[in-house]
Automatic annotation (TrEMBL):
The active site is at D81, E176. HAMAP family: Aminopeptidase_M20. The keyword Zinc applies. It catalyses: Release of the N-terminal residue from a tripeptide. Zn(2+) 2 binds at D142, E177, H381. It comes from Bacillus caldolyticus. This is Peptidase T. Binds 2 Zn(2+) ions per subunit.
Length: 411
């Protein structure tokens, strides 16, 4: 299985599928079409059925049931794009067999080294086969490892018809990294009762809680007057904006929070005397706290409007996604089964809240409860990204085990 995974992964990694938030098409970039078409051919060649690709680049396929038991239809998803913030062109993966635990020279010419001094987690990988970048690009283990693991698990089940299972659906989706992964996902066509994204980090990760998320845009209008004659007339929008920021609790910011703590994050601040714009994101696991944070922003805006004039301050808040826990809790057994699958394989499940969102955060609210499983990679979105091929094997085995468990528990 390991060689098969390495080959698949490297083949996918070489296609540049970096997504682009400024594009309005779906997929946002043509490289994703290229990978999507490759995956369609591969799904057909391994013997998957109902292989489809729609106008938006979503690839779906079916592994038909081989049992008469009444097993729920489950799905597995991975995304095809890589992060916009680091180049995904000309990815040239390096394979390190039997990693010795020391420094890995990614690029001799440029002196780029992946070192356990900077990344102590490398210690866990002694003896593993590692796949790294050549130091000039990201690797794309997020989430091409997930695609390779799903594909390999499907191939394994097709090659082993003695393993009984219900109907399994798989999907490969575009534009996760720019938050649009589920936007055009056809939940009805997919037709699964639950799904798992295979898009997590290191071995054992199992996630079913994400942030509730909103963004806030504040525009403050000032009044510019020559500073020599400004007394009693000038209104400096920058200073009102500073007042706004200062009324938020200083310690509830990303740089001061962890675990289940929420925050306000000032993403950008652009201003002149005449006009200042603030862009925030608001994050909280707890729905009530999340609503309270939005209310707090409205309160501050209202008090500043009272002080400086109603037409000076506009506040626009948009919800982005919600904590998937609310939708997964009622079908909690899907998390328990993933937990059991890992334990059966000797993997210690690491259940933790995601301080962000996954495609599952949106899909769960579209009627497809979707927790997240580890794909195995480390240091996502940059030149130091790497993945253990041995842990990719474990991820593929977890997928197979989950499918087995659903069948075993059905009647
Ligand atoms: Zn991802």
């Amino acid at each position: 299985m390991k060689q098969e995974l390495i080959e698949r992964f490297i083949c996918y990694a070489k296609v540049n599928t970096q997504s682009d938030p400024n594009s309005h098409t779906c997929p946002s970039t043509s490289g994703q079409w290229e990978l999507a078409r490759m995956l369609v051919e591969e799904l057909k060649s391994i013997g998957m059925e109902d292989v489809t690709i729609d106008d938006n680049g979503y690839v779906m396929a079916t592994l038909p049931a081989n049992t008469d038991k009444n097993v729920p239809v489950i799905g597995f998803l991975a995304h095809m794009d890589t992060a916009p913030e680091f180049t995904g062109a000309n990815v040239n993966p390096q394979i390190i067999e039997q990693y010795d635990g020391g420094d890995i020279v990614l690029n001799k010419e440029q002196g780029i080294i992946l070192s356990p001094n900077d990344f102590p987690e490398l210690a866990h990988y002694q003896g593993h086969t590692l796949i790294t970048t050549d130091g000039t690009t990201l690797l794309g283990a997020d989430d091409k490892a997930g695609i390779a693991e799903i594909m390999t698990a499907m191939n394994y089940l097709i090659q082993h018809p003695e393993i009984k299972h219900g109907k399994v659906r798989v999907a490969f989706t575009p534009d996760e990294e720019i938050g649009r992964g589920p936007h055009k996902f056809d939940v009805a066509k997919f037709g699964a009762q639950f799904a798992y994204t295979v898009d997590g980090g290191p071995l054992g990760e199992l996630e079913y809680e994400s942030f509730n998320a909103a963004e806030a845009k504040i525009t403050i209008k000032g009044k510019n007057v020559h500073p020599g004659t400004a007394k009693g007339k000038m209104i400096n929008s920058i200073k009102i904006a500073m007042e706004f920021e200062q009324q938020l609790p200083a310690d509830e910011a990303p740089e001061h929070t962890e675990g289940y703590e929420g925050f306000y994050h000032l993403l950008s601040f652009q201003g002149s005397v005449e006009e200042t714009k603030l862009h925030y994101i608001i994050r909280d696991f707890d729905r009530e706290q999340f609503e309270a944070r939005k209310a707090k922003m409205k309160e501050i805006a209202a008090s500043l409007a009272q002080k400086y004039g109603n037409d000076r301050i506009t506040l626009e808040i948009n919800d982005q996604y919600y904590n998937m826990r609310e939708k997964i809790e009622p079908v909690r057994h899907i998390v328990d089964i993933a937990h059991e699958a890992m334990t059966n394989l000797g993997i210690e499940p690491k259940v933790k809240p995601i301080r962000g969102g996954t495609d599952g955060s949106q899909l769960s609210y579209m009627g497809l409860p979707t927790p997240n499983l580890f794909a195995g990679g480390e240091n996502f979105h940059g030149r130091y990204e790497y993945i253990s091929a041995d842990n990719m094997v474990k991820a593929a085995e977890v997928i197979v085990e989950i499918i087995k468990l659903f069948e075993q528990k059905a009647s």
